[in-house]
Design a protein that fits this description.
heterodimer; A: 297 residues; mainly alpha; 11 helices; 2 strands; B: 418 residues; alpha/beta; five-stranded parallel β-sheet
């Protein structure tokens, strides 16, 4: 039973890992970022490439992927998203286009494959990341075999969630972000540089996606399409938790993960997935603003 | 001028005739020009291109080898290559283009069953011929398709008895991706398991492309099974083997015996996750014969990649072109019908060994083999059938070599019901 609960917790942590970045870009900034999954993919490729070219392991890839995807996020915000604030559907279409561009850039090795040049680690093929020995196999805790890599993901997710909470609720920049969530115009009137804060927030959300990519690369195969299905799960978590609420995302990821784990253990994985979707639909019907909605005046 | 005009009228009449009969009258024109056109239809773009590009390359290599050896009946083979783009609808359009516009008498193509099903109506309606190189679930009987990959009985008929008798494992946990191929494979497995005195304790599926294996592997662990039979497909395979090791399961105690895990998937997951597990296929890169080694050498030179891996569907893509060549040489004329009649019973020494087209169902005799995966990502062949096994596409429904459901006359639907 402990193992089943642990798997549920692990499923929840993976959901939260992807959703954290979305909770910020969608929840805080109102941008439906369809390219979020591609940020995860880029993070995974950073792990592959740093392993191939620098010979470094997954631990080094975490800060590296954060920096690379944050910079990419900054670029996307500066070039495209900035012009679309407040136009929800337009952000959806524009970022979807960006998602396709990023996917193809990786698949075609930035276009070099047309010239017959190949970069090891890119291209349409499946890549893999070797996991350090210390994260393979199991740990025995209280009579249950705990999967080390999954335990590692839970720890990293917890650290990231705490760091995000700290940044948003305990720093000056975070206060400015929350002010912008409530009312961008009033925030600007109070002297907050809205464009600058928005750009940094978007970069931070993208960086979190990059770290999620590093964690994913350890137990999935890495390929250009890998991010697309994840973004759907991410949105489920954010919408169910309540847009703009970090705590809501944490809770909904935990609840969905445990439901998935328990139903899968009792019946099968296909039914478990259906039940998860059913729960999300029920919650959206009963509480349209999600579990932890911001109370506006 | 007058001659030209007469020619024009003649071909006009032929075109008129073609509308009523079939467009194959035109292929005599292709013959005169000293070339014979064939279609090659695989996905060169999209998600499936990783594997299908290798099938395309193997087909092209066979064609260039035949041309280098003097062609067919003194004619050069010209390949008209099209891109299926990993999309069944595109497959259908490209197949129509090859058959109607290019008027090829044969097309080599497809990897997935979905793409084969999508082009099938084109070939049946136009009475053309399709060569399909991939192992598949069976349950198909078309007189317009020549199947050169394994059907379930050729992957499982030695595998299951071997697991039970040689490995001594009796309790099976069957796991697969949730679509037709794994489900048909599971059906055949159950028949064979029960026949050989084993039992299956679970038959579970995960969505195709889904890679969250935590719950399933935990279930396998607590199920009390002593062997796992995997029909998992695609990149899911990678996540499955990784989770398996990470939950502390080992292949020496609880081995995964797989029907889809090939050299390609092993390379994608990192060989250390698969060491000690088993796979059943008619072909492995590790087959230790001079013919196979020379084949791998030529393939690597052809694709200019010294590390390229070869696998079952790739090898079938290669040898099926030679079977086709022999059929064309035997056929009286170059038309799909004549080639089909001539391909029946054709034999060839392929890299995997001797292959032969079964005259009744147009499937191929292949030699089932079992390999255990080594740390270098190659299989070590530990068991092989003595001779090629007869293909039985309806084995899950009771088909036996003496009671064929699919014959030259088509499918006997009455037998399927009973």
């Amino acid at each position: 039973m402990l193992e089943v609960l642990f798997i549920g917790l692990s499923l929840g942590s993976i959901l939260l890992l992807v959703a954290l970045g979305l909770a910020i870009t969608y929840g805080a900034m109102g941008v439906i970022n369809m390219a979020h999954g591609e940020m995860v993919m880029v993070g995974a490729y950073v792990t592959v490439l740093s392993g191939l070219w620098l010979g470094t392991n997954i631990f080094v890839a975490i800060p590296l992927a954060f920096i690379v995807t944050a910079l990419l996020g900054l670029l996307i915000e500066r070039v495209v998203v900035r012009k679309l604030y407040g136009r929800l559907l337009d952000t959806l279409l524009a970022t979807w286009g960006i998602a396709i561009l990023i996917q193809q850039a990786v698949r075609l090795e930035f276009g070099l494959s047309f010239l017959g040049i190949h970069i090891q680690g890119l291209g349409p093929g499946l890549q893999n990341v070797s996991v350090p020995e210390i994260l393979q196999g199991t740990l025995r805790i209280a009579g249950a075999d705990i999967n080390r890599y999954r335990a590692f993901i839970i720890v990293v997710t917890a650290i990231l969630a705490l760091a995000t909470w700290f940044v948003i609720y305990r720093t000056v920049a975070g206060t400015q972000v929350r002010a912008i969530i409530r009312n961008p115009k009033m925030a600007a009137a109070c002297g907050i540089d809205v464009t600058r804060v928005n750009a940094l927030t978007f970069a931070f959300g993208s960086g979190l996606a990059g770290v999620a990519g590093v964690m994913m690369s350890g137990f999935k195969t890495v390929f250009p399409d890998m991010g697309t299905p994840m973004v759907v799960d991410g949105f489920l978590v954010v919408v169910m938790g309540g847009v703009g609420s970090l705590l809501g995302s944490v809770f909904s990821a935990g609840i969905l993960g445990e439901i998935n784990g328990l139903v899968a253990a009792a019946t099968n994985d296909i039914l478990a997935r259906a039940v998860v979707f059913g729960v999300v639909i029920a919650i959206i019907v009963l509480k349209p603003k999600g579990l932890f909605a911001l109370k506006g005046r | 001028m007058a001659v030209d005009r007469r020619k024009f009228l003649k071909s006009g009449a032929l075109a008129g005739g073609a509308l009523i009969t079939s467009p194959w009258v035109f292929s005599t024109g292709a013959k005169a020009a000293g070339e014979i056109k064939v279609g090659v239809l695989f996905s060169l773009t999209g998600g499936l291109s990783i594997i299908e590009k290798s099938l395309h390359d193997a087909t092209m290599m066979a064609i260039s080898e035949i041309n280098a050896g003097g062609g067919v009946k003194g004619m050069k083979i010209t390949a008209v290559a099209e891109d299926g783009a990993s999309d069944p609808k595109t497959y259908n359009e490209k197949a129509s283009k090859l058959v109607i516009q290019d008027r090829v008498p044969t097309v080599f193509g497809s990897y997935t069953s979905a793409s084969r099903k999508a082009v099938l109506p084109v070939f049946e309606k136009r009475n053309n011929l399709y060569f399909y190189p991939t192992y598949y679930e069976g349950f198909e009987c078309s007189k317009n398709v020549v199947y050169t990959g394994a059907v379930p009985n050729q992957q499982l008929s030695n595998f299951i008895p071997w697991i039970i008798k040689t490995l001594g494992k009796k309790k099976f946990f069957i796991v697969g991706s949730n679509y037709i191929y794994p489900r048909e494979m599971a059906k055949v497995s159950k028949i064979l398991i029960e026949k050989n005195g084993g039992e299956w304790i679970a038959d579970e599926y995960l969505e195709l492309g889904h890679s969250e294996w935590g719950s399933m592997v935990n279930k396998i662990k607590s199920s009390g099974c002593d062997v796992v039979l995997s029909n998992v497909v695609g990149d899911s395979v990678v996540a499955f083997y990784r989770e398996y090791k990470n939950q502390g399961l080992t292949h020496d105690k609880l081995p995964i015996c797989a029907t889809v895990t090939s050299e390609i998937e092993i390379a994608a997951m990192g060989a250390e996750y698969a060491v000690g597990s088993f796979t059943s296929f008619p072909y492995f890169q590790a087959i230790d014969t001079d013919r196979n080694k020379a084949f791998i050498e030529r393939y690597r030179a052809f694709v200019k990649d010294p590390k390229a891996v070869t696998h079952h569907a790739l090898e079938s893509s290669y040898f099926q072109v030679f079977l086709w060549k022999q059929a064309v040489e035997k056929a009286a004329e170059i038309s799909p019908t004549a080639i089909r009649e001539a391909v029946k019973g054709q034999e060839f020494d392929a890299p995997n060994g001797h292959v032969k087209i079964e005259p009744e169902n147009l499937h191929t005799y292949l030699t089932p083999r079992i390999a255990q995966w080594l740390p270098d990502g190659q299989g070590k062949i530990i068991d092989a059938y003595k001779e090629p096994v007869m293909p039985l596409p309806y084995v899950a429904y009771g088909e036996t070599p003496t009671n064929l459901f699919c014959t030259g006359k088509g499918l006997d639907a009455a037998k399927l019901k009973t």
